[in-house]
Amino acid sequence: MKKIYTLTLNPALDKSTTVERVEAEHKLRCENPKFEPGGGGINISRALKKLGGESVAIYPKGGPTGEHMQLLLDKEAISQYTISSQNWNRENFIVVEQSTNKQFRFGMPGPALLQTEVDAILAYLNKLEDIDFFVVSGSIPEGVPTDFYKSVAKIVNAKKGKLILDTSGKALQEALKEGVYLCKPNIGELGQLVGEELDTIPKQEAAALKVIKDYNVEILVVSLGAFGAFLATKDQIYHVSAPSVNKKSTVGAGDSMVAGMLFQLAQNKSLFETLKYGIAAGTAATMNTGTELCKKEDVESLYHWITEHHMKNGTHY
Ligand SMILES: Nc1ncnc2c1ncn2[C@@H]1O[C@H](COP(=O)(O)OP(=O)(O)OP(=O)(O)O)[C@@H](O)[C@H]1O
Ligand SMILES: [Mg+2]
Known about the structure:
Blueprint: E1 4-7, E2 12-19, E3 34-38, H1 40-51, E4 56-61, H2 63-75, E5 79-84, E6 90-97, E7 102-106, H3 115-127, E8 133-137, H4 148-158, E9 162-166, H5 169-178, E10 180-183, H6 187-194, H7 201-214, E11 217-223, E12 229-232, E13 237-240, H8 253-265, H9 271-286, H10 296-309
Parallel strand pairs: 1-4, 1-8, 2-6, 4-5, 8-9, 9-10, 10-11
Antiparallel strand pairs: 2-3, 6-7, 11-12, 12-13
The structure holds adenosine-5'-triphosphate and magnesium ion.
């Protein structure tokens, strides 16, 4: 079985509840809260598990929120490696207002990591013996240098692992200089990287090819929300549209998409199958309310639909 790791520097315990109406000054009587572990890499490990894959989720764990997160991940039978952190993990708060079905998401800032904790993460990575895929997802907390993902890339590449990256801004740029196997920006993140507004398909494709030429990245999957995604390498571009579904919440679509692609890559599937399954997983996540990730049965049925209704081969290069 392939050895897969995910890294989440800024994990969160998501606390969700519902209330009839959100109103100032009144006491708001909420339903019993539901807790879920979250943060990019953790979500990818959880979605991958639902699809039938295994991974080790690496994350800093601090305080009672960290203990709670570990317990919840244990319940989902997710393998974990935690680095103890002095500061407590953050807790986000999500409220659905029943009268309007509006979702209010209160995100807390992530706690800073100490230098010793940052070093401990790198020391653990240096010790890993076999890495097939290493997934880095999410933002970088205070106390961590912006080139941290570059250091991760260096270690993973030296061990012949394949690095999958889903982040943005400077952290993305730095890691791309070092060497990334697959990177999944959304169209806004790609635009930010090339410093241009990408409002047409030709501009989007040209930007992806420029990133492949200017940086050290083999595969770029650019996600386009409800429009699906395209995959670019230096030799080919595949486009796949997302099937239209009854969308409930797009939260977690990007993480489910990365998990879907990882599931295919770990089974040595082709890049076209990888893209189609990733889109199926991303779209499947949007069929669920709140922070819920994709369900395997939805992913499979969307994947079959895409395969039947799409061109046999989406390449046009
Ligand atoms: N409204 C939608 N309808 C159908 N599919 C969607 C929709 N939004 C997202 N998806 C699916 O999820 C994939 C990833 O979505 P998106 O491009 O929004 O990623 P993202 O911006 O990285 O998401 P996130 O906010 O979770 O990080 C898309 O390629 C598509 O398959
Ligand atoms: Mg994203």
